[in-house]
Amino acid sequence: MVGVLCFFWFGCVAARLYYFQVIQYVELLGRAQRQQQRTIEVAPQRGAIYDRQMNPLAMSLGVDSVFAVPSELSEPQMVASLLAPVLGVDAEELRDRFQAAHSFCWVKRRVTPEEATRVRDLNLKGVYFERETKRFYPKGDLAAQAIGYVGLDDKGLGGIEYALDDQIKGKPGRVLLASDARRRTFHSTEWAGVPGKSVVLTLDEKIQYIAEKALAEEMAAGHAAGGVAIVQNPNTGEILALANQPTFDPNAFNSSPSAGRLNRAIGWVYEPGSTFKLITVAAALEENLTSPQEMIDCQGGKIVLAGHTIHDAEPNYVLSVTDMLARSSDVGTIKLAIRLGNERLYRYIRAFGIGSKTGVELPGEERGLLQPPSRWSGISVGEMSIGQEAAVTPLQMVTMYSSIANGGILFEPHIVHDVFLGAHHDALAPAAGHRVLSEHTAETMRNLLTVVVDHGTGKAAQLGGYTSAGKTGTAQKIDANGTYSRSLHIGSFIGFAPASHPAVTILVVIDSPVGAYYGADVAAPVFRSIAEQTLGYLTVPQDNPSRWPHIISPKPARTPDQKQEDFLGFLPPGRESFGAVTSPVQPASFSNRPSPDGPTQPGTPDEGVASSTVILGDGPLVAVPDFSGWAARRVAQECEKLGLDLNVVGSGLAVEQNPLAGLKVPSGTRIWVRMAR
Amino acid sequence: MATAAVTLPKTRRRPRNAPAAGRASFPEFYSVKHIDNSRVVREVDVERRRECFSLLGLGVLVFLFVLLFAWQHFQCVRHGYQIEQLKAEYATLEEQNHQFRLEQAALADPKRIDTLARTRLGMVTPGPQQLIRVGGPEPAAAAFESPELARNFSVGSGDIPHEP
């Protein structure tokens, strides 16, 4: 009997086992897997954004997001009232969300670690965490418009974050987790996603800070509506700083006014005013329609064009082209534009990149406003030549001035230096540029612009220790009636330094300043502040120690007559261009550097220059020898004999020195000599 | 010693060895005889023994395999927990590393350093005459001198930027 019972029992077990293991196998396995395993999507790590020195400007960190499964909540109202104070959300709203959803609803996304800990401590059934990434901008509002910001779903919404979103964002991965009854994971299988690529910008955070600080100070002092400062490497088109005012903190972009998010450097257009005269003068020089020495009758500062009278800011009579530009005479510039004619002027304006996008990697770039000659009125050629009837972006303008600074090549500006993931670097297009002016014209223009700073309207842009060149501009804004406003102006200054061998081109535009509004008053001092600090930071050798504030110069480097001669634009006999003579003291560097293009380099000192005398301090003066081609031992012996301090860099023969040979310096001055083989 | 017992038929049923009807019945004597076979040695069946041991060995082997399988399984689960724990630890450390890097970047904010330098240390922006170059031009400066050099310029100290 027992045997029969046992047999029956075993039979039942076997049958049940067969039912579970064979018949119900698939369904039960599925149910078990649903309970034990869960697949979660792993958000990809968004690539970081660095400045050119690899300082992080934007980084992503993993943070917890809290979500609930309303169907698992035993008492939704109580859960809502417990979570609300911890997470700082509205309890009523949370309750509504619990009632509206069945299987999933967010409680709060991207919570702080403290909030996550407090929610965990509550140990609420049906409340879970999901790992997400949050974007952080450790430098706050530094370069905010260029870097951009990301939204709640990790999608770039502005700046580089938006422009390169596809590359920075990456692709999500998946993880299959097997958990036990206590929800402890004991096995996981990963399908790795693709992390986002990191981006290296051409910006330098130090230069960016210098530019932003100088601009913000001017904005505060002048109560202006806005401002832009751009620092560019004229030799490559790289943007080193791009400062905007007003600005915003991308860490909390929602709480900032939308005006702060506008990247004025590319997304705002303005009438450039006198800074635009550069095109007219350069075009006239390039076409051999004038020369720096040509005298132009500025007619007392008044010209009638198509029935409209255009006035200079002050009466001007017969001026050289150099002087005309230095004094920013509208009449003289218009006369040159008339010589050029509509078509030719338009062609040069277009060649300088006005009216088309520069191609910088930032989103939202404007192309500006430029009508073709067929739509010009009788006055247009005059208006256009002095920077009216055309609207430009600040980036177009700084790029244009860079082309003068670098010898006539208009480089496409760019802000992305590298895009990489691990050791793999994306191939970026090399700096693209095309020649818009001959080297000779560009050099002439550099010197004309140097005169503007030395003797003209741009005196406020004179730098300590460096030569500089540039042009001021003041334009009336168009008011709501469509006429030029009498109270709203845009003051600007665009220039480069050192003038002889430019290392940086800087644009400063101040929108609607209160009180002083001339570019010379509001923008040139900002240029000076940015340029001095930037050149010092870049350790660019000083080329104009005569402008040191403490220097005692009992004997001027050049006589007033000579200065007047320079001012008028006359060239000394035997010179092809009046190159470096406009500056009283010649560059102390770049002097002996062999030029790949030929023996003559802008700023290369000649005999006249070498004999210039600058007296520093009251002590005994020593003439610095010309060390070029000397061995280090001989240089050291000579310096010891003269009582000069020596700093030798490199090995071989001397190829460069600072201060320049012939300069008279106090005994004990440190001489820097670069040796090369 | 032998014992004898006489048993008389008590039942009506004829015993199996009882004489058939019509025949005379005789009492039957059963005797118990003790046989001493202690000196008899049982012959070992080698074949059976081998079979037995083989079976036993197989059983042990199967048992060991089962044990090994179970051990492996539990070890696998145990290591699974350990691996997951280490993975979580790694992720936490990596996260911490990111956090430290973020903190470092925030601490190196030029605005913060500038403010500290001016307010706490009483520093000022140096004038052009106060700038002394140490060790000649930096690569950064050299890069800005001419387009040719600038195009070859690379960020940082190396040619290829890497994640710090």
Structure description:
The complex is a heterodimer of chains A (677) and B (164). Chain A is α+β, with helices and mostly antiparallel strands and 677 residues long. Chain A has three domains: 40-201, Alpha-Beta Complex (Penicillin-binding protein 2a (Domain 2)), CATH 3.90.1310.10; 205-537, Beta-lactamase (3-Layer(aba) Sandwich), CATH 3.40.710; 591-677, Trypsin Inhibitor V, Chain A. Chain A contains 23 helices and 26 strands. In chain A, strands 2, 3, 4, 5, 8, 16 and 17 form a seven-stranded mixed sheet that branches. In chain A, strands 10-9-21-20-19 form a five-stranded antiparallel sheet, sandwiched between helices. A three-stranded antiparallel sheet of chain A has the order 1-6-7. The N and C termini of chain A lie far apart (110 Å). Residues 550-618 of chain A have low confidence and may be disordered. Chain B is rod-shaped and about 155 Å long. Chain B is built from four helices and two strands. Residues 1-6 and 145-162 of chain B have low confidence and may be disordered. By secondary structure, chain B is mainly alpha-helical. The chains are: A alpha+beta (677), B mainly alpha (164). At the A-B interface, strand 3, strand 7, helix 9, strand 16 and helix 20 of A face helix 1, helix 2, helix 3 and helix 4 of B.
Lay out the secondary structure.
The complex is a heterodimer of chains A (about 675) and B (about 160).
Chain A: H1 2-23, H2 25-36, E1 37-42, E2 49-50, E3 56-68, H3 76-87, H4 91-100, E4 105-111, H5 113-122, E5 127-136, H6 144-147, H7 159-163, H8 165-169, E6 173-179, E7 185-191, E8 198-201, H9 205-222, E9 226-232, E10 239-245, H10 258-261, H11 264-267, H12 277-286, E11 295-297, E12 302-305, E13 308-311, E14 318-320, H13 321-326, H14 330-340, H15 342-351, H16 380-385, H17 394-405, E15 409-411, E16 416-421, E17 424-425, E18 433-435, H18 439-455, E19 469-478, E20 484-497, E21 504-511, H19 519-522, H20 524-537, H21 560-568, H22 607-610, E22 621-623, H23 632-642, E23 645-650, E24 653-658, E25 664-666, E26 670-676
Parallel strand pairs in A: 2-8, 23-26
Antiparallel strand pairs in A: 1-6, 2-3, 3-4, 3-5, 6-7, 8-16, 9-10, 9-21, 11-14, 12-13, 15-18, 16-17, 19-20, 20-21, 22-25, 24-26
Chain B: E1 4-6, E2 29-31, H1 46-107, H2 110-119, H3 139-143, H4 147-152
Antiparallel strand pairs in B: 1-2
